[in-house]
Specification:
The chain is mainly alpha-helical. It has a domain of 80 residues. Helix content is 66%, strand content 5%. The chain has a two-stranded antiparallel ribbon. The protein is elongated and about 105 Å long. The model has no long low-confidence stretch (mean pLDDT 79).
Length: 115
């Protein structure tokens, strides 16, 4: 910039039509104030990030634990079924096919007619 002043654009709908002008020193001062403000807040944001990261890790660990518990429960249930508890899929399929075959060979039923 060749001049020592900077002009800020102001919305034309504002009644005050004067455009504020800042000197180069005022612009530098505002930049420093903004930079200091962000630097001060970064400290707090880093603490918040650490907090959020810890919460995320806790939730992830909980989900993994629940998933492991479900896997163990399903594996245990599968072992119990294999020991003669509930019928296997093959046995159930054979029983279904047998029932369907018997139903196909049974005499057809009709409704009685009142007469």
């Amino acid at each position: 910039m060749a001049t020592d002043t900077v002009t800020l654009e102001v919305d034309s709908t504002i009644e005050n039509t004067e455009e504020p002008t800042l000197t180069k020193a005022e612009v530098e001062l505002r930049r420093k104030e903004i930079t200091d403000y962000y630097k001060e807040n970064i400290k707090h944001l880093k603490i918040q990030l650490e907090y959020e990261t810890i919460l995320k890790d806790i939730e992830k660990t909980r989900a993994e634990r629940v998933q492991a518990q479900m896997f163990l429960a399903q594996a245990s249930q599968g072992q119990q079924q294999g020991e003669g508890g509930a019928p296997s899929n093959t046995e159930m399929a054979e029983a279904f096919a047998k029932a369907q075959n018997e139903a196909d060979h049974a005499p057809k039923r009709t409704l009685k007619r009142e007469g």
